[in-house]
Amino acid sequence: MTLLWKLLRRHLSVVQLGGFTLANLVGATIVLTALQLYADLRPILTQPDSFLKGDYLILSKKISTLRTLGLGSSDFTQAELRELETCPSVQGIGAFTPANYRIEGSIRAGGMGMSTLLFFESVPDRFLDIRSEAWTFSPGERTIPIIIPRNYLNLYNYGFAKSQGLPQISEGIFKKVSLNLDLSGNGLSERFTGHIVGLSNRLNTILVPESFLTWSNQRFGSGRPGAPSRVIVETDGSAPEALYDYIAQQGYEIEGDRQDAGTTARFVRLGTGAIVTVGLLISALSFFILLLSIFLLLQRNSRKLENLLLLGYTPARVARPYQLLTAGLNLFVLLVALAATLLIRQGYLPLLETLTEEYHPGGVGLSLAAGAALALILTLLNGAAIRRKVNRLWKRA
Amino acid sequence: METITLQQVLPAVFSDRPPQDSGIWLREVSFRKGECTLLEAESGSGKSSLCSYLYGYRTDYAGTILFDGRDCRQFSPKEWSRLRNRSLSMMFQELRLFPELSVLENIRLKNDLAGGYQSPNRINRMLEQLGIADKRNTMAGRLSFGQQQRVAFIRSLCQPFDFILLDEPVSHLDDANSAVLAQLLSEEVSRQGAGIVVTSIGRRINIPYDKILSL
Fold first, then answer.
1. Judged by CB atoms within 8 Å, which residues 124-183 of B form the interface with A?
2. Is the ipTM of this complex over 0.85?
3. Residues A99 and A245 reside in one and the same domain
């Protein structure tokens, strides 16, 4: 091979191969970075706390004037829930269970106190998937884990604190604040400590664990589960139109910015798609640069190649040094592009971590696989094109 | 391979004025393993064309060339490569050396392909006998045509073969070198039991011929 390579590397253009390497590097890095960014954004787009996952909807009934006047109910009946459960693409539904007793929350800090009436709701844990070990309650405990909407904190920080000249507080400090909760009903009155374990960006209610609500409703309330006024629906996303049609037909409302969230997810997918396309285009162009460069090399060495074929070298053997050259270049580009992607990732990951709490970045498997596939496809296409060109020389030889 | 048979072969270039008294064209002629054939010709009578047909790099002819009864036009590139490695050796009139490689590298390029068919010692002896041992590390492009002819000859012996085709092998050699070449050729051919097809337009290599055909 060394003698053959010594012969065949003549007329090798370092500038052309350098041009290819650079172009392919840019293309591959764009493709891999876009895919990696998508993989890292997915946990944010699909994290359960946001209910942004394409597969969760929160439904309630429209409050009409009649309902305000007490005619008709905004609660879901058991029949309605059963019907909803049988809708196309619905995987399961979970009711929001309200607390049916009186709750007064108070907070004391720096000699100042605030108190307000509160309400609790719960949803089955599988719809929450809260990543907090504190999200449990057993009868007898005096601490209640709570999830509150993030905009409560924003209301305080940007509305109340500013206008009243109070200090603004960070999420970290906010989560350390304990609330005094006075629960009363059934002639009982007990004090608990509320501990905020999470802030929800989009779920507009004060959530407590279902186990606590069941226990406390029996202790302080009627004990009889009330009809839910809101439900959370898990869908497999297979037939969204049919489900939306049914929801509209029943006069239910989809709560929150589920629609916007869907749009955001779509936009991210679209953006990733566009960037990947641009990257692939650059890679495709660089592929042609390499191919042209190799073809030019083959052309310039055609006399030598003909003579080698006449000496008894097979077309496969003659093509091999060039195929190895392209494979080596593609492998080099893959490794550098992967390194560049991981470096870029180190740059943006801290930014993503500030976007949401308990952020777990996606794996690098997707970009690794895509990079390997890209390098493999380019190498195979290069190899086949070189082989075809050498075969054509054979016919001339 | 035992026999090469030409049946009514005529180069396309002669199709409008077929030669009347050729010993090869438009006849049935066979070359047998172990036989030595001299093809005598005038310039332009198609002897290099015949070599290229027999070596499989041109097919612009009418008629059929059979290798042990098989039409060689049907051979795949892979089969031709195998033939050129094991059954057919060729010394081209235009030599087809690689000018940017040294004498030894040119020879090794073929000898390595044949799995080191000739030992380095044997190659050195042949270089010495042909008077170019001191040129072994010189680029082939820097040698005279006569010296290059000797390199190409040694290269053609660096493989197993049933037939060796030599296209004007001594056109630029003096009598002494021509005699050495004849001796080396005879030794190798008798060792391999091969057939020789050699062309000449004037100077001929001095070996006993079984057949002399005129093109």
1. 159
2. yes
3. yes
